[in-house]
Design brief:
Length: 285
């Protein structure tokens, strides 16, 4: 069996930075818990390791005791959350991805303009950025939403319309939406905020698909960028599977001669290596 890894896979800069900040905070706190508001990243293996070192995942601010150390995950949070944590005298460790932080600043700067933002309503990054955008923030999740906005909006008294995106949004979908929005709002300013890491992973995957009989996509089942990788793999390769760890590798993959490996931006190196090792061992038996 030949195992071929995608040229770009695994941790992105923002996720690696957040994990490192968490590890540093846990080390400095010397056994005292560090809270993360929501899962730090979409990977159970990493979360379990950090949990064993003292990190606690809080579902809401009310779950965090006053005066605690709180790590803001890479997705970021709305400004109201920061204000509430400050009122609770919490020590805030900001691990917001710099690219997400840049989008928050764009939203805040354009509060008095019409903001059109493409993304997933349920994603933490989107909720955080929306909090900076105010009343003129319009979330577009798909092409139909864009068409509805165009047909239902008047030009208003805005100086301009600003279009930008969730960092992990599909570049192809963003371009389709841009065309619809630009047909209605002539004062449109388009800002490319899609993270290059997302595009690089997609491009590396497409190249990989042409070389292998099947592709294994490693990453959390709730990870947006991993899900998109799997969808692309399924569309461009005869066999594709999305797994969280090596125990989920389907039996049929052990019979293939050439297997491609890619992984989402929240997938640590050790999980990727484990999958490769299991494939090598089982195929040689």
């Amino acid at each position: 069996m030949e195992i071929i890894k995608a040229d770009v896979l695994g941790y992105c800069f923002g996720v690696r930075r957040a994990v490192e900040k968490a590890e540093q905070a846990l080390s400095i706190n010397s056994g005292k818990p560090v809270y993360s508001l929501g899962p730090l990243i979409h990977n159970k293996t990493t979360l379990n390791r950090l949990s064993s070192d003292g990190m606690k995942t809080a579902e809401s601010i009310s779950d965090i005791p006053d005066g605690s150390s709180v790590l803001i995950r890479a997705h970021g949070v709305p400004p109201q959350v920061i204000s509430e944590l400050e009122r609770k005298n919490c020590a805030i460790i900001d691990a917001t991805c710099p690219r997400v932080k840049a989008s928050q600043k764009i939203a805040e700067k354009n509060r008095n303009n019409r903001i059109v933002f493409t993304g997933d309503a349920e994603h933490g990054e989107v909720r955080g950025i929306a909090g900076y955008g105010g009343e003129n923030f319009h979330l577009i999740q798909n092409l139909k939403d864009a068409e509805n906005l165009v047909s239902g909006s008047d030009s208003g008294s805005f100086e301009k319309t600003v279009l930008f995106s969730q960092t992990t949004f599909s570049g192809i979908e963003f371009e389709k939406i841009r065309q619809v929005i630009s047909s209605r709002f002539q004062d449109l300013e388009v800002l490319n905020t899609i993270c290059p890491a997302t595009k690089e992973r997609q491009e590396a995957l497409l190249e990989l698909c042409s070389k292998v009989e099947g592709v294994i996509v490693i990453g959390g089942k709730q990870s947006a960028n991993t899900i998109r990788l799997y969808q692309a793999a399924r569309a461009n390769c005869t066999r594709a599977v999305h797994i969280e760890n090596a125990s989920e590798i389907p039996d049929e993959f052990f019979l293939l001669k050439k297997i491609g490996i890619t992984a989402g931006a929240s997938t640590p190196d050790e999980l990727i290596n484990e999958v490769c090792e299991v494939l090598n061992v089982r195929s040689s038996c």
